[in-house]
Specification:
Distance between the termini: 28 Å
Radius of gyration: 31 Å
Shape: elongated
Helix content: under 10%
């Protein structure tokens, strides 16, 4: 049987907790059904169309048009960086409102970005985007599904290592400000340590390579029959906020001293209890605590490891913790 008591605000605590989990995938593990990491290759279309119908597809499961990949990456992340690595700002004005519209004052000019390109830091960003043709128009992108990265990829944790068919090996990490930099090199290459080769967008799970050798990554592992996929390793940590709920269930010394358990009835009459139950020494025990909503619907059940007697002299407090 049950007895009810209303919570007050001082009895309920909800605390956010940031949980992180590390992942490490290599080769065909990247494309497993429970992982689903995609590697895309993008190429500038020869015409002015956004997506060229004659272009090839790229990816493993969710195939994309190579020109569509190029233009999508360009539109989302690089529209302010097509002619300047520091960004193309537009001249704008600020408005100082007056009592009436005629009293408004415009102050300027002020330089500001034309588009929102998802800057990952307050540090001034420097980005390069290939706008040429042929080999000068290539890029690659790694797309990590939200089921893996949660709310965002944790800064400083992304790492990709790739060895091309030519023997060039690159290890690239993120610098915590949204840039992907070369951390180590094996083989002959024109790249340099700490050189920026692309960007990572933590809350999108997208890493882009827009310069140097890794611009051909998507071509090597998707357009070449996946022959080089085993040479690719990706590491990162995911982040998700878990809310810890704590309910403090306090039974005062003068509460719940009467049991509604039907086994305590004498059996002769439905409302007559055994004599030992009505004595002042009788103490009910607690075995289960349930949390109900305002509609008296049971939401959470907490089972005690042992039956706990309710004290007749001091308050009894049971703490219930659960995560959501």
């Amino acid at each position: 049987m049950s007895a009810f008591k209303q919570f007050t605000t001082k009895d309920v605590y909800i605390t956010p907790f940031n949980a992180q989990k590390g992942f490490d995938f290599t080769g065909t593990a990247l494309t497993a059904s429970d992982v689903g990491i995609e590697v895309y290759y993008g190429e500038n279309p020869t015409s002015s169309v956004f997506v060229s119908s004659s272009a090839t597809t790229t990816g493993f499961v969710y195939l994309q048009n190579t020109t569509g990949v190029y233009n999508s990456i360009k539109q989302l992340y690089y529209t302010n960086y097509l002619t300047s690595s520091r960004g193309d700002d537009a001249v704008t004005q600020s408005i100082v409102p007056g009592v009436t519209r005629e009293d408004d004052r415009f102050v300027g000019p002020i330089n500001a970005p034309i588009f929102d390109n998802y800057l990952q830091s307050t540090v001034t960003q420097s980005r390069y985007f290939p706008t040429g043709s042929g080999t000068g128009s290539r890029l690659s992108a790694i797309s990590i599904p939200a089921k893996l990265f949660g709310e965002n990829i944790v800064p400083f944790t992304f790492e990709t290592t790739y060895t091309s068919s030519g023997g060039l090996g690159l290890r690239v990490v993120d610098d915590g400000d949204g840039n992907l930099i070369i951390n180590s090199i094996s083989g002959s290459a024109s790249e340099s340590i700490n050189e920026v080769v692309g960007q990572i967008f933590y809350s999108h799970g997208i890493a882009t390579f827009t310069t140097k050798s890794l611009t051909d990554l998507g071509n090597d592992v998707t357009l070449s029959g996946s022959a080089n996929l085993d040479n690719l390793q990706i590491k990162f940590s995911s982040s998700i906020t878990i809310y810890e709920n704590q309910y403090k269930c306090t039974i005062n010394e003068n509460e719940f001293q009467y049991s509604l358990n039907p086994t305590l009835l004498s059996g002769s009459l439905d409302d007559v209890y055994y004599d030992y139950v009505t004595g002042s020494f009788f103490t009910p025990y607690i075995t289960t605590v349930g949390l109900y909503n305002e509609q008296n619907e049971l939401l959470v059940v907490g089972k005690l490891s042992n039956a706990v007697p309710i004290s007749q002299y001091i308050d009894t407090t049971i703490i219930i913790n659960f995560d959501t």
